[in-house]
C-alpha cells in the first residue's frame, strides 16, 4: 500500500524508517491543534456526575471529525458497501439505546487485517475487517460495538486528554485547578503514571459493562460476548503479544472473559427471545478479504511489487520491510539506516523541476544529483540536504520518479554517514525502480473467507483437513471459528476457512 504524504522533504525525512503509527503525522498535528483547552466541568452522560474536563463535548466532536480523515487515509475504508451498511445498522441500533442517543454516530469498517476495534471522541467507531472475520454472530459484533460506544458515552478520551494535559502543564498551574493534583509534589509524574494505568484499566472495565448493557438493551444475547475475549486471547497468544494483566493498559482478555460472562448472566436473566444471528452473520462473511491485500503491494524476498500502481523495486538484502497504505519502508539491522517510499504532491512538475522548487522554497538547503531515466521513467536521483531544528541539517539519499502524469514517487533514505555503504544501497534500490509489466503479477488474488456447511460429521481437524488447500493452518482456522481442533462437528454446522492468495 502507498499513498500521498506531506510533500515537504523535511517532514518526510523525519518519518523515514519509523514504525507504523496510528495515524499519519499530518493527521496527528491536526488533532493536536484541536486540543487547546479551556478549563471547565462537564457532566458525564453515564454517571450524571460533574467532572473536571479540559475537553468539551464540542471539542470531542471536532477531534473525532478531524481524526476520521486521518484514520481512513492510514488504514483505508473497506470497499464492500454491503458490509459497511450492515455494521452501521447494527451500530446505530446500539447507539440508539446508549446514554447519547442524540449524538451523530459514525461506524466504519477499515480495510485492515488486524483484529482490532477502537473509538474516537465524538461518536466515531471503527472495526477492522480482521475482527469481523473472527467473530461468529451478530450478537458478538454488538458486544464489540457496544464496548466502543461505551468509551465514547463515558467520555474516556476526554478523561485521558484531561489527565495528560494536567500532568504536562506543570504543578503550579495544575494546583490552581485541583488540590488533588497539587499534593503529589515532586513525585507527581510517577504517581500520576500509576493513576493513569489504574484509570485506563477502570475505563476498560466500564466499557465492558456498557458493552453488555447496550447489547442487551438492543435485544442481543450478551452470552455471546465472553467468547470474543476468548478469541482475542488466543489471537494475542499466537502473535506472541501476551502481556501480564498488571503490565497492560487494558485488562487481560482472560480476565475479561470471566467478568463479562458474569455480567451477561445477570443482564439476560428473565429475558427471552434475545437475538444471536449466528448463521446469518457467518454467511455474510463469504468472500471477505482476509489478511494483507496483495493488490495494495506485497514483498517476495527483498523484491516489492505494487500491482495497483504498477511498479516494482528491490530493497537492500537483509533489511526489514513494512508496507502500509501510506508508505513502504525498509530498515537496516540495528536501525543503522532506513528508507521510505511515498507519493509526493508534485502536481505535473518534472522530477528535476520539483527538486528545484523545493530548493527555491527553502525546504531543501542543497541538492546534488541529476536527471536519469529508470526503465523508461523520468527521474531525479542524488542527495539532498534538509534543514532541521536549531540550524542543524540532514543529508538524505533521494530519488523522485514520475510514475504517471498524476503520480510522483518519492524515495528518501538516511544512513550513519552520507555516501557510506548503506547510503549507496538506498540509491541502488531507488535505481531498481521499474514498471510492473508481468500480467500475472498485475492481477493477484487476496485470501478470502470461504463459508461451507459440514457434510460429514467428524472432528474439527478432520473436517478442515478434508477441505483442500487452506490459507491458514489448523490453529488459525480453529481460532477463526472459536473452536478447538478436537471439537466434534455435526452435519450442517457452518465452517469458515480461508482460501489461499494467488500472487502470480
UniProtKB/TrEMBL annotation:
Gene3D superfamilies: Metalloproteases ('zincins'), catalytic domain. Keywords: Hydrolase, Metal-binding, Metalloprotease, Protease, Zinc. CDD domains: M48C_bepA_like (cd07333). GO terms for molecular function: metal ion binding; metalloendopeptidase activity. Pfam families: Peptidase_M48. The keyword Nucleotide-binding does not apply. GO terms for biological process: proteolysis involved in protein catabolic process. Its cofactor is Zn(2+). One of its GO terms (cellular component) is membrane. Residues 83-256 form the Peptidase M48 domain. InterPro entries: Mito/Outer_Membr_Metalloprot (IPR051156), Peptidase_M48 (IPR001915). This is Peptidase M48. It comes from Eiseniibacteriota bacterium.
Amino acid at each position: 500500500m502507498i499513498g500521498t504524504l506531506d510533500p515537504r522533504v523535511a517532514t518526510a525525512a523525519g518519518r523515514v524508517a519509523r514504525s507504523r503509527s496510528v495515524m499519519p503525522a499530518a493527521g496527528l498535528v491536526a488533532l493536536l491543534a484541536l486540543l487547546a483547552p479551556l478549563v471547565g466541568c462537564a457532566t458525564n452522560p453515564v454517571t450524571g456526575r460533574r467532572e473536571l474536563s479540559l475537553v468539551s463535548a464540542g471539542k470531542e466532536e471536532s477531534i473525532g471529525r478531524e481524526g476520521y480523515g486521518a484514520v481512513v487515509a492510514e488504514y483505508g475504508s473497506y470497499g464492500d458497501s454491503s458490509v459497511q451498511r450492515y455494521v452501521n445498522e447494527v451500530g446505530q441500533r446500539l447507539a440508539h439505546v446508549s446514554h447519547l442517543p442524540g449524538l451523530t454516530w459514525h461506524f466504519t469498517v477499515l480495510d485492515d487485517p488486524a483484529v482490532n476495534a477502537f473509538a474516537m471522541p465524538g461518536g466515531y467507531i471503527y472495526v477492522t475487517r480482521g475482527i469481523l472475520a473472527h467473530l461468529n454472530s451478530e450478537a458478538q459484533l454488538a458486544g464489540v460495538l457496544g464496548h466502543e460506544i461505551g468509551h465514547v458515552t463515558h467520555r474516556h478520551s476526554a478523561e485521558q486528554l484531561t489527565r495528560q494535559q494536567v500532568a504536562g502543564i506543570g504543578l503550579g498551574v495544575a494546583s490552581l485547578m485541583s488540590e488533588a493534583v497539587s499534593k503529589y509534589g515532586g513525585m507527581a509524574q510517577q504517581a500520576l503514571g500509576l493513576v493513569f494505568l489504574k484509570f485506563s484499566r477502570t475505563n476498560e472495565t466500564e466499557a465492558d459493562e456498557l458493552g453488555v448493557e447496550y447489547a442487551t438493551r438492543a435485544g442481543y444475547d450478551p452470552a455471546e460476548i465472553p467468547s470474543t475475549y476468548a478469541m482475542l486471547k488466543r489471537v494475542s497468544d499466537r502473535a506472541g503479544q501476551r502481556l501480564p494483566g498488571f503490565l497492560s493498559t487494558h485488562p487481560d482478555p482472560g480476565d475479561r472473559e470471566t467478568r463479562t460472562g458474569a455480567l451477561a448472566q445477570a443482564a439476560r436473566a428473565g429475558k427471552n427471545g434475545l437475538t444471536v444471528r449466528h448463521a446469518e452473520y457467518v454467511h455474510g462473511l463469504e468472500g471477505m478479504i482476509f489478511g494483507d491485500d496483495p493488490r495494495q503491494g506485497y514483498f517476495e524476498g527483498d523484491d516489492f511489487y505494487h500491482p495497483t500502481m504498477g511498479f516494482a523495486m528491490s530493497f537492500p538484502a537483509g533489511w526489514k520491510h513494512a508496507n502500509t497504505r501510506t508508505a513502504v519502508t525498509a530498515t537496516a539491522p540495528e536501525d543503522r539506516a532506513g528508507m521510505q517510499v511515498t507519493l509526493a504532491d508534485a502536481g505535473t512538475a518534472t522530477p528535476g523541476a520539483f527538486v528545484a522548487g523545493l530548493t527555491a522554497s527553502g525546504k531543501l538547503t542543497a541538492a546534488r544529483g541529476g536527471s536519469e531515466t529508470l526503465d523508461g521513467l523520468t527521474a531525479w536521483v542524488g542527495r539532498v540536504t534538509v534543514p532541521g531544528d536549531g540550524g542543524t541539517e540532514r543529508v538524505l539519499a533521494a530519488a523522485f520518479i514520475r510514475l504517471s502524469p498524476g503520480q510522483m514517487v518519492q524515495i528518501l533514505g538516511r544512513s550513519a554517514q552520507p555516501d557510506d555503504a548503506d547510503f549507496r544501497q538506498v540509491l541502488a534500490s531507488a535505481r531498481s525502480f521499474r514498471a510492473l509489466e508481468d500480467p500475472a503479477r498485475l492481477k493477484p488474488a487476496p485470501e478470502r473467507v470461504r463459508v461451507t456447511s459440514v457434510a460429514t460429521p467428524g472432528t474439527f481437524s478432520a473436517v478442515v483437513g478434508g477441505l483442500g488447500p487452506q490459507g491458514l493452518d489448523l490453529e488459525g482456522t480453529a481460532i477463526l471459528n472459536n473452536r478447538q481442533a478436537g471439537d466434534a462437528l455435526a452435519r450442517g454446522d457452518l465452517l469458515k476457512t480461508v482460501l489461499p492468495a494467488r500472487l502470480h
